[in-house]
Amino acid sequence: EAVARRRQYIAGGTMSINRAIGPAKLFVRAKGAYIWDAEGNAYIDYHAGFAPYLFGHGDKDIDDAVIAAIGSGASLIGAGTMPWEAEIAEMLVEAVPGLEQIQLTSTGSEAVSYALRLARAATGRDTVVVMQGGYNGWSDYVSYNLMDPGDVVADHREGDEYPLRVTTAGIPKVIDTTVRVIEYNDLAAAERVLARGDVAALILEPVLQNVGVVKPLPGYLEGLRELCDRYGTVLIFDEVKTGFRHALGGYQAIAGVRPDLCTFGKAVANGYPMGVVGGRREIMALCNDPDPGRRVIIAGTYNGHPVNVAAARASLLRLKARERDVYSELERLGARMQAGIEAIFARRNYPTTFVRQGSAFALYFMDHAPRNWRDIALHNDNERDLAYRRAMIEAGVFHFPAATKQSSISLAHTDDDIDRTLALTEDVVRTL
Ligand code: PMP
Fold first, then answer.
1. How remote is the CA of residue 238 from the centroid of ligand 1, in Å?
2. Could you tell me the distance, in angstroms and rounded to a whole number, from the CA of residue 31 to the centre of ligand 1?
3. Are 221 and 213 in contact (CB under 8 A)?
4. Which residue's alpha carbon is nearest to atom 11 within ligand 1?
5. Which member of 17, 44, 152, 346 has the greatest number of CB atoms within 10 A?
6. How many angstroms separate the Cα of 22 from the Cα of each of 13, 37, 46, 233, 385?
7. 141: Cβ below 6 Å to ligand 1?
8. DSSP secondary structure code for residue 214 in this structure
9. What ipTM was reported for this prediction?
10. pLDDT on residue 162
11. In 3-state terms, what secondary structure has residue 305?
12. What structural domains and CATH numbers belong to the chain?
């Protein structure tokens, strides 16, 4: 009945999750590392609400902070007026190498839109370069650059740069000419496109995490930094997914490469809606440029909403106080999962490769760790990948039900949860 009602009143009916696993499953509740469907079945959750839940669902600290904010009389008086806003801005600037000033937004997509506007204002150029298989949100600036690797095998020669494939109607044609796509981990392609001298920004997830976990080759991010410096292009790290999951300082702190601008979202407020855009002071100064033609206004009724700021503050305070414990524990749990999964699949007669960065992991159905999207599109056995995910959901383990999607471990997962996941995986792979 609930599904029928959704179909009638919600455009498109159900979410992609339900399209993939069938409409009958309706998730109604979550706590810690678990989610429950309407029939009361429990699932160990690695989808983590599209990845924000670093501390798990319904974390007590975060919820208490939110409830306190609601009860405190704090309200939307105006962006920048809430004392906690400056406090979390200071914490972010102290923690993240590439941040000298920030602005808050409500979502990751908005943070990306503003980063691109800032880059265009700073350079006086229009073109933006994105990565194939990267996802930088839903804004019309970069559109929907996320393709199911099952959709298409790349129709371009490796190393070529090409226009964004507009797969969704209603997106302005202008992006055909102003957004260029290259493959990740291909420095020569980056050089060819940047050398034209008309590129305002190169934006990328430093680790591609919307097509699993695709890591930068040694020297790749450093190479992009050098090319952007040489050709006057603003380097933007989209850390909406990588930020706070891998380190308090973002993946940039691990890589030791400093972008000009960067964006955050998801884990910054552990499931409450907040995005962050920030970077070098002289670029962020455009927010207050005396020339109205250059000024970049970052606005939004709910930017800096007290509830979300309270959630981010609670999350950041905990990360700051227990940074080493949090990330070593996530690493330990990730390693336990990796060892178990690799042992289980080692005995199969088809290839799999487990790739992990800390608590984020992906199991590819191919014989090597992918180098970029094209590599995945050409080699991953999407059918088996999806069959595995569907069978795991039936068994009570929730990995996102689409091929090559990333899974996330949270601090709410225990050793027992991991071991139970492994036991269920062992049962499932016998049927594949
Ligand atoms: N950038 C990246 C890297 C993302 O993973 C996402 C969300 N999946 C976004 C931007 C968009 O964030 P939001 O959904 O909060 O708009």
1. 8
2. 23
3. no
4. 137
5. 44
6. 12, 13, 19, 45, 17
7. no
8. B
9. 0.99
10. 72
11. coil
12. 2-48+323-431 (3.90.1150.10), 60-321 (3.40.640.10)
Residue 264 beta carbon below 6 angstroms from any ligand 1 atom: no
122 contacts 283 by C-beta, under 8 angstroms: yes
For 68, 185, 294, 319, 409, the CA distances from 326, given in Å and listed in that order, are 24, 29, 41, 7, 12
Bridge partner list, 277: 103, 263
- Residue 210 CB less than 6 A away from ligand 1: yes
Ligand 1 pocket residue status of 59, Cβ below 6 Å: no
Is ligand 1 within 6 A of the CB of residue 145?
no
Q: How confident is the model at residue 370 (pLDDT cuts 50, 70, 90)?
A: very high
The residue type of 333 is L
| Rounded CA separation 218/379 (Å) | 22
- Residues 332-356 have pLDDT tens digits of 999 999 999 999 999 899 999 999 9
Q: Are 368 and 342 in contact (CB under 8 A)?
A: no
Alpha-carbon span 430 to 432, nearest angstrom:
6
Asked if 142 and 160 count as a contact pair (C-beta separation under 8 A), the reply is no
- From the CA of 108, how far away is ligand 1's center (Å)? 5
Q: Which amino acid is at 106?
A: S
Pick 105 or 181 by higher pLDDT.
Answer: 105
Distance CA 93, CA 281 (A): 11
CA distance 344 to 247: 29
pTM of the model: 0.95
Half-sphere exposure of 52 (CA within 13 A, CB side): 22
**Which tens digit of pLDDT belongs to each residue from 164-184?**
765 566 777 777 778 888 999
Closest CA to 211 of 384, 382, 18, 359: 382
Rounded mean pLDDT, 152-156? 47
Are the CB atoms for 279 and 295 separated by under 8 Å?
no
Q: Is 144 in the pocket of ligand 1 (CB under 6 A)?
A: no
Ligand 1: centre distance to CA 146 (Å): 11
The model's confidence at residue 150, banded by pLDDT at 50, 70 and 90, is very low
